Amino acid sequence: MARSIWVIAEVADGKLSRITTEVATAARGIAEQAGRDVVGVVVGADPGKPAEELARFVPRVLSVADPVTDGHASATLLAERVAALAADEPPDYLLLGAGPEGRDAAGVLSVLLGWPVLANATGLGWADDGPTVEMSVFGGRLTTRNAFVGEHGIITIRPNAVTAQPAATKGAVESSNPGGDAKLPSVPVVESVAEAGAAAPIEEARIVVAGGRGVAGEDGFKIVQELADALGGAVGATRAAVDAGWINYAHQIGQTGKIVKPQLYLALGISGAIQHKVGMQTAETIVAVNRDPDAPIAEFADLLVVGDLFEVAPAISAALRARTG
Fold it and tell me: What does pTM read for this prediction?
Protein backbone atom coordinates (compact mmCIF):
# COMPACT_ATOMS: atom_id res chain seq x y z
CA MET A 1 0.00 0.00 0.00
CA ALA A 2 1.36 3.42 -0.99
CA ARG A 3 2.37 5.68 1.87
CA SER A 4 0.45 8.93 1.89
CA ILE A 5 -0.17 12.34 3.39
CA TRP A 6 -3.81 13.40 3.68
CA VAL A 7 -5.16 16.93 3.39
CA ILE A 8 -8.42 17.29 5.32
CA ALA A 9 -10.59 19.92 3.67
CA GLU A 10 -12.47 22.69 5.38
CA VAL A 11 -15.67 23.69 3.58
CA ALA A 12 -17.63 26.89 4.20
CA ASP A 13 -20.91 27.76 2.46
CA GLY A 14 -20.39 24.93 0.00
CA LYS A 15 -16.95 26.20 -1.07
CA LEU A 16 -13.46 25.03 -0.35
CA SER A 17 -11.77 27.34 2.14
CA ARG A 18 -8.66 29.25 1.15
CA ILE A 19 -6.69 27.74 4.03
CA THR A 20 -7.26 24.25 2.60
CA THR A 21 -5.62 25.28 -0.68
CA GLU A 22 -2.62 26.52 1.34
CA VAL A 23 -2.45 23.26 3.30
CA ALA A 24 -2.67 21.27 0.06
CA THR A 25 0.22 23.26 -1.41
CA ALA A 26 2.32 22.59 1.70
CA ALA A 27 1.44 18.88 1.54
CA ARG A 28 2.62 18.65 -2.07
CA GLY A 29 5.89 20.28 -1.10
CA ILE A 30 6.83 17.77 1.59
CA ALA A 31 5.35 14.82 -0.33
CA GLU A 32 7.70 15.54 -3.21
CA GLN A 33 10.66 15.44 -0.83
CA ALA A 34 9.39 12.30 0.89
CA GLY A 35 8.20 10.34 -2.13
CA ARG A 36 4.69 10.06 -0.67
CA ASP A 37 1.26 10.31 -2.27
CA VAL A 38 -1.01 13.25 -1.44
CA VAL A 39 -4.70 12.57 -0.89
CA GLY A 40 -7.40 15.16 -0.21
CA VAL A 41 -10.49 14.32 1.83
CA VAL A 42 -13.73 16.30 1.55
CA VAL A 43 -16.68 15.49 3.81
CA GLY A 44 -19.99 17.29 3.48
CA ALA A 45 -23.66 17.18 2.64
CA ASP A 46 -22.79 18.04 -0.96
CA PRO A 47 -19.03 17.56 -1.37
CA GLY A 48 -18.93 17.56 -5.18
CA LYS A 49 -17.94 21.16 -5.88
CA PRO A 50 -15.34 21.57 -3.11
CA ALA A 51 -13.88 18.17 -4.05
CA GLU A 52 -13.41 19.36 -7.63
CA GLU A 53 -11.79 22.54 -6.31
CA LEU A 54 -9.38 20.54 -4.15
CA ALA A 55 -8.50 18.35 -7.16
CA ARG A 56 -6.82 21.43 -8.65
CA PHE A 57 -4.23 21.16 -5.86
CA VAL A 58 -3.77 17.45 -5.15
CA PRO A 59 -3.66 14.37 -7.42
CA ARG A 60 -6.38 12.39 -5.64
CA VAL A 61 -9.47 13.44 -3.69
CA LEU A 62 -11.81 11.26 -1.64
CA SER A 63 -15.32 12.73 -1.65
CA VAL A 64 -17.57 11.64 1.22
CA ALA A 65 -21.24 12.61 1.15
CA ASP A 66 -22.75 12.86 4.62
CA PRO A 67 -26.13 14.61 4.86
CA VAL A 68 -25.82 14.82 8.66
CA THR A 69 -23.21 17.57 8.25
CA ASP A 70 -25.90 19.91 6.88
CA GLY A 71 -27.05 22.18 9.71
CA HIS A 72 -24.62 20.74 12.25
CA ALA A 73 -21.20 21.72 13.57
CA SER A 74 -18.96 19.84 11.20
CA ALA A 75 -15.68 19.27 13.05
CA THR A 76 -16.72 16.18 15.05
CA LEU A 77 -18.61 14.63 12.13
CA LEU A 78 -15.71 15.30 9.79
CA ALA A 79 -13.21 13.76 12.19
CA GLU A 80 -15.27 10.63 12.68
CA ARG A 81 -15.58 10.06 8.92
CA VAL A 82 -11.87 10.70 8.35
CA ALA A 83 -10.97 8.27 11.16
CA ALA A 84 -13.15 5.61 9.53
CA LEU A 85 -11.44 6.18 6.18
CA ALA A 86 -8.05 5.98 7.86
CA ALA A 87 -8.93 2.59 9.31
CA ASP A 88 -9.40 1.22 5.78
CA GLU A 89 -6.53 3.08 4.09
CA PRO A 90 -4.10 4.31 6.77
CA PRO A 91 -2.23 7.53 5.90
CA ASP A 92 1.06 8.49 7.49
CA TYR A 93 0.12 12.05 8.36
CA LEU A 94 -2.95 14.27 8.39
CA LEU A 95 -2.72 17.98 7.56
CA LEU A 96 -5.40 20.54 8.42
CA GLY A 97 -5.73 24.31 8.56
CA ALA A 98 -5.25 25.90 11.98
CA GLY A 99 -8.57 27.72 11.84
CA PRO A 100 -11.43 27.10 14.29
CA GLU A 101 -12.80 24.10 12.36
CA GLY A 102 -9.38 22.59 11.72
CA ARG A 103 -8.31 22.90 15.35
CA ASP A 104 -11.52 21.23 16.56
CA ALA A 105 -11.24 18.42 14.02
CA ALA A 106 -7.57 17.84 14.84
CA GLY A 107 -8.40 17.38 18.52
CA VAL A 108 -11.13 14.84 17.81
CA LEU A 109 -8.93 12.99 15.31
CA SER A 110 -6.14 12.82 17.88
CA VAL A 111 -8.47 11.10 20.31
CA LEU A 112 -10.01 8.74 17.76
CA LEU A 113 -6.72 7.71 16.17
CA GLY A 114 -4.41 8.06 19.16
CA TRP A 115 -2.06 10.25 17.12
CA PRO A 116 -0.04 13.24 18.39
CA VAL A 117 -0.64 16.78 17.13
CA LEU A 118 1.78 19.56 16.21
CA ALA A 119 -0.28 22.75 16.06
CA ASN A 120 0.02 26.14 14.40
CA ALA A 121 2.83 25.28 11.99
CA THR A 122 4.41 28.25 10.23
CA GLY A 123 6.55 26.10 7.93
CA LEU A 124 7.05 22.47 6.88
CA GLY A 125 10.02 20.42 5.74
CA TRP A 126 11.07 16.79 5.57
CA ALA A 127 13.99 15.05 7.25
CA ASP A 128 14.82 11.61 8.65
CA ASP A 129 11.74 10.00 7.11
CA GLY A 130 9.28 12.39 8.74
CA PRO A 131 7.98 15.96 8.55
CA THR A 132 9.69 18.80 10.36
CA VAL A 133 7.35 21.46 11.68
CA GLU A 134 8.37 25.05 12.34
CA MET A 135 6.45 26.79 15.12
CA SER A 136 6.60 30.33 16.49
CA VAL A 137 6.92 30.36 20.29
CA PHE A 138 7.45 32.82 23.16
CA GLY A 139 5.39 35.51 21.50
CA GLY A 140 7.24 35.15 18.22
CA ARG A 141 10.69 35.60 19.73
CA LEU A 142 11.81 32.11 18.73
CA THR A 143 11.11 29.65 15.94
CA THR A 144 11.38 25.97 16.85
CA ARG A 145 11.70 22.95 14.58
CA ASN A 146 9.76 19.91 15.77
CA ALA A 147 9.19 16.32 14.67
CA PHE A 148 7.04 13.35 15.64
CA VAL A 149 8.28 10.37 17.58
CA GLY A 150 6.64 7.59 15.59
CA GLU A 151 5.26 7.08 12.10
CA HIS A 152 1.98 8.97 12.37
CA GLY A 153 0.90 12.48 13.32
CA ILE A 154 -1.50 15.37 12.77
CA ILE A 155 -0.34 18.85 11.76
CA THR A 156 -2.35 22.07 11.71
CA ILE A 157 -0.95 24.90 9.58
CA ARG A 158 -1.53 28.58 10.30
CA PRO A 159 -3.29 30.69 7.65
CA ASN A 160 -0.99 32.51 5.22
CA ALA A 161 2.03 30.41 6.19
CA VAL A 162 2.07 29.10 2.61
CA THR A 163 1.10 30.73 -0.68
CA ALA A 164 -1.47 28.52 -2.42
CA GLN A 165 -0.38 27.22 -5.84
CA PRO A 166 -2.51 24.88 -8.01
CA ALA A 167 -0.83 21.71 -9.25
CA ALA A 168 0.36 21.41 -12.84
CA THR A 169 -2.39 18.90 -13.62
CA LYS A 170 -5.82 18.39 -12.10
CA GLY A 171 -6.32 15.36 -9.90
CA ALA A 172 -9.07 12.74 -9.84
CA VAL A 173 -12.10 12.74 -7.53
CA GLU A 174 -13.33 9.43 -6.09
CA SER A 175 -16.58 8.91 -4.21
CA SER A 176 -15.95 7.15 -0.93
CA ASN A 177 -18.16 5.73 1.80
CA PRO A 178 -16.43 4.78 5.06
CA GLY A 179 -19.60 2.99 6.18
CA GLY A 180 -21.18 2.73 9.60
CA ASP A 181 -23.32 5.19 11.50
CA ALA A 182 -21.88 8.15 13.32
CA LYS A 183 -21.47 7.36 17.01
CA LEU A 184 -20.32 10.70 18.33
CA PRO A 185 -23.06 13.22 19.19
CA SER A 186 -23.91 15.77 16.52
CA VAL A 187 -24.27 19.40 17.52
CA PRO A 188 -26.96 21.36 15.63
CA VAL A 189 -26.26 24.92 14.57
CA VAL A 190 -29.19 26.93 15.94
CA GLU A 191 -28.06 30.37 14.76
CA SER A 192 -25.39 31.90 12.55
CA VAL A 193 -24.41 35.53 12.98
CA ALA A 194 -22.58 37.20 10.10
CA GLU A 195 -20.60 40.30 10.99
CA ALA A 196 -20.81 43.23 8.64
CA GLY A 197 -17.40 44.19 7.35
CA ALA A 198 -15.05 43.97 4.42
CA ALA A 199 -16.02 42.02 1.34
CA ALA A 200 -13.19 39.55 1.99
CA PRO A 201 -11.99 38.11 5.33
CA ILE A 202 -9.02 40.00 6.72
CA GLU A 203 -6.76 36.99 6.07
CA GLU A 204 -7.58 37.23 2.36
CA ALA A 205 -7.49 41.01 1.93
CA ARG A 206 -4.98 42.48 -0.54
CA ILE A 207 -4.75 45.65 1.53
CA VAL A 208 -4.95 45.91 5.33
CA VAL A 209 -5.07 49.18 7.26
CA ALA A 210 -4.42 48.48 10.94
CA GLY A 211 -4.64 50.60 14.05
CA GLY A 212 -2.80 50.27 17.33
CA ARG A 213 -2.61 51.97 20.67
CA GLY A 214 -1.83 55.28 18.95
CA VAL A 215 -5.35 55.38 17.47
CA ALA A 216 -6.37 56.33 21.01
CA GLY A 217 -9.95 55.09 21.02
CA GLU A 218 -13.00 53.79 19.22
CA ASP A 219 -13.47 57.12 17.42
CA GLY A 220 -9.92 56.86 16.11
CA PHE A 221 -10.80 53.66 14.30
CA LYS A 222 -13.26 55.65 12.19
CA ILE A 223 -10.19 57.21 10.56
CA VAL A 224 -8.71 53.72 10.06
CA GLN A 225 -11.98 52.53 8.50
CA GLU A 226 -12.17 55.59 6.25
CA LEU A 227 -8.69 54.95 4.86
CA ALA A 228 -9.37 51.23 4.45
CA ASP A 229 -12.54 52.04 2.49
CA ALA A 230 -10.65 54.50 0.28
CA LEU A 231 -8.05 51.82 -0.49
CA GLY A 232 -10.57 48.99 -0.88
CA GLY A 233 -8.99 47.14 2.03
CA ALA A 234 -9.83 45.60 5.38
CA VAL A 235 -9.35 46.94 8.91
CA GLY A 236 -6.94 45.27 11.30
CA ALA A 237 -5.88 45.98 14.86
CA THR A 238 -3.32 45.15 17.52
CA ARG A 239 -4.15 43.22 20.65
CA ALA A 240 -3.86 46.39 22.73
CA ALA A 241 -6.62 48.03 20.69
CA VAL A 242 -8.82 44.95 20.96
CA ASP A 243 -8.22 44.55 24.70
CA ALA A 244 -9.16 48.22 25.17
CA GLY A 245 -12.54 47.51 23.56
CA TRP A 246 -12.00 49.87 20.65
CA ILE A 247 -12.63 47.14 18.04
CA ASN A 248 -13.65 43.50 18.19
CA TYR A 249 -11.41 40.44 18.17
CA ALA A 250 -12.23 39.49 14.56
CA HIS A 251 -9.80 42.25 13.50
CA GLN A 252 -6.90 41.27 15.77
CA ILE A 253 -3.61 40.53 14.02
CA GLY A 254 -0.63 38.91 15.69
CA GLN A 255 0.50 35.98 17.81
CA THR A 256 -2.89 35.62 19.49
CA GLY A 257 -4.90 36.83 16.50
CA LYS A 258 -4.75 36.29 12.76
CA ILE A 259 -1.86 36.09 10.33
CA VAL A 260 -2.26 38.26 7.26
CA LYS A 261 -0.23 38.41 4.06
CA PRO A 262 -1.53 41.40 2.06
CA GLN A 263 0.19 43.23 -0.76
CA LEU A 264 0.06 46.39 1.38
CA TYR A 265 0.00 46.66 5.16
CA LEU A 266 -0.57 50.20 6.42
CA ALA A 267 0.09 50.47 10.16
CA LEU A 268 -1.33 53.49 11.97
CA GLY A 269 -0.09 54.17 15.49
CA ILE A 270 1.41 50.67 15.85
CA SER A 271 4.70 50.35 17.72
CA GLY A 272 5.62 47.03 16.14
CA ALA A 273 5.90 44.73 19.15
CA ILE A 274 7.10 41.22 18.27
CA GLN A 275 3.69 39.70 19.11
CA HIS A 276 2.10 41.85 16.40
CA LYS A 277 4.99 41.49 13.97
CA VAL A 278 4.53 37.72 13.66
CA GLY A 279 1.03 38.30 12.31
CA MET A 280 1.94 40.70 9.50
CA GLN A 281 5.66 40.50 8.75
CA THR A 282 5.12 38.56 5.50
CA ALA A 283 3.17 41.44 3.89
CA GLU A 284 4.73 42.42 0.57
CA THR A 285 4.96 46.11 1.52
CA ILE A 286 4.72 47.55 5.03
CA VAL A 287 4.07 51.27 5.49
CA ALA A 288 3.96 52.65 9.03
CA VAL A 289 2.75 56.00 10.35
CA ASN A 290 4.13 56.79 13.79
CA ARG A 291 5.20 59.87 15.71
CA ASP A 292 8.17 58.00 17.18
CA PRO A 293 11.01 57.54 14.66
CA ASP A 294 12.56 54.95 16.99
CA ALA A 295 9.48 52.74 17.25
CA PRO A 296 10.33 49.04 16.68
CA ILE A 297 8.22 48.96 13.52
CA ALA A 298 10.77 51.27 11.89
CA GLU A 299 13.22 48.36 11.84
CA PHE A 300 11.16 46.24 9.45
CA ALA A 301 8.78 48.65 7.68
CA ASP A 302 9.52 49.39 4.03
CA LEU A 303 8.47 53.00 4.60
CA LEU A 304 8.12 54.92 7.86
CA VAL A 305 6.15 58.15 7.88
CA VAL A 306 7.06 60.13 10.99
CA GLY A 307 3.97 62.13 11.80
CA ASP A 308 0.58 62.31 13.50
CA LEU A 309 -1.73 59.63 12.15
CA PHE A 310 -4.70 61.95 12.73
CA GLU A 311 -3.20 64.27 10.11
CA VAL A 312 -1.54 61.77 7.78
CA ALA A 313 -4.39 59.25 7.41
CA PRO A 314 -7.13 61.80 6.53
CA ALA A 315 -4.71 63.44 4.07
CA ILE A 316 -4.16 60.11 2.31
CA SER A 317 -7.91 59.44 2.23
CA ALA A 318 -8.58 62.90 0.76
CA ALA A 319 -5.90 62.41 -1.90
CA LEU A 320 -7.38 59.05 -2.88
CA ARG A 321 -10.88 60.51 -3.13
CA ALA A 322 -9.60 63.36 -5.29
CA ARG A 323 -7.85 60.92 -7.59
CA THR A 324 -10.94 58.75 -8.08
CA GLY A 325 -13.43 61.48 -8.68
Answer: 0.79
